[in-house]
Amino acid sequence: MWTRLKNVLANQTVMLRLGITLLLILVYRIASFIPIPLFNVKLFQSQSQWGEGFLGILNSYTGQALARFSILSLGISPYITASIAVQILQMIIPQMKEWNEEGEAGKLKVNRLTKYFALVLGLAQALLLILGTGVRGSQVQVGVDDSFFTYLYMALAVTAGTALTIWLADMITAKGIGNGSSILIGVGVLTSIPIMIATLNDKYLGTGNGLDIATYVFILFLYVLILLGVVYMNIAKRKIPISYSNRQGSMGRSDSNIPLKINSAGVLPVIFASTLLSIPLTIVGFLEGSVDSNTQSWISSIFSYNQPVGFILYIILIVIFSFFYTFMMTNPHQMAENLSKSNAYIPGVRPGEDTKNYIARILFKVTVIGTIYLVVLAALPIVTAAIFGFTGQEAANITLGGTGLLIVVGVASDTTQQMEAMANQETYQGLF
Fold first, then answer.
1. Structure confidence by residue, pLDDT tens digits, 254-307
2. How far is it, in rounded angstroms, from Cα 306 to Cα 394?
3. In degrees rounded to 5, what are phi and psi of residue 87?
4. Per-residue three-class SS string for 45-80
5. Topology adopted by domain 13-190
């Protein structure tokens, strides 16, 4: 381990890329404190809803920028949504399918379409965000003309913030250590950890009670234990052995394997499930005072995952999205065809249809384990909040498990591997 770390730290190119990445992250964090121009920020910063539901997730991913009503309130989320939409469209529209076969030129077309779609989506989301706050008071500062063009101007400022975030992510990918979008999301999530520690300190260390101190230590120990579990599951793989038939000019057979990650879908199923459940709650929250209490209570009981019915619906959506996204990204039929084209086969399995069915069965079993893991991880913040008695803002700040931890571990793992690969590449190039 120390040798690998020394190899990375001694590489000047990797260190330069790391420095550029840290500089771009600093720019991102500074920009997240720039408020939306003309917006009445003081009226809305005290609202607790920015720590709950989908808005709470978005606020966490943007590093609390949404709660500050910064120009980066949407962060990189429109680009992520646009990327997923474009991936689905590539499976449906024949012309977009052809882009996958055009190599680098096709990737550029997909990337350009994704960015344009992200900006359009960002403008729509910015307008909904700004106009949706209108029921709580005037959105504009005192003395500013309260007109549609004022709201459009504020929405364009937020859209420009999204464009800046996309550019910073591209720069980190091209000039930095890679995975720009993931790194910016990970940085945003990391900002919630000091808030969690501060909330725990206020709750348990200020009382002088020995039981509270023991609970504080146990919660930190539990957090570390969950972190280790997430790290293990992040690197866990099911390897399908494959062999290559004898080729002309080669001796014997070359053996390899197909690694299938236990959690191939990543954090996306949890994000999708949270988003769908939170849309009705968000609309009701914005329309507070316009909706009667019975309707609010009914919607909350169905769509809030803190309620029994909402929790069951939350779990069902995670399971559905986990299987859907895994089989969308890992196509057994395409994998079987690629093996056949490479003159490779799975030992004991006939090429063609049998190989496809075998891979599909293994993928299904792996996805069952990964889905159970996702369900447990997503349910942990809800269960632990009930056990330890976290309520309101405490439950929003203290999250044991959840999507944020999964994102941070995934980003840290991918970034470390990428930096090590860069260092090894430079070392090999310098041999001759």
1. 568 888 888 887 777 877 777 777 777 767 666 655 666 677 777 777 777 767
2. 14
3. -60, -40
4. CCCHHHHCHHHHHHHHHCCCCCCCCECCCCCCHHHH
5. Preprotein translocase SecY subunit (1.10.3370)
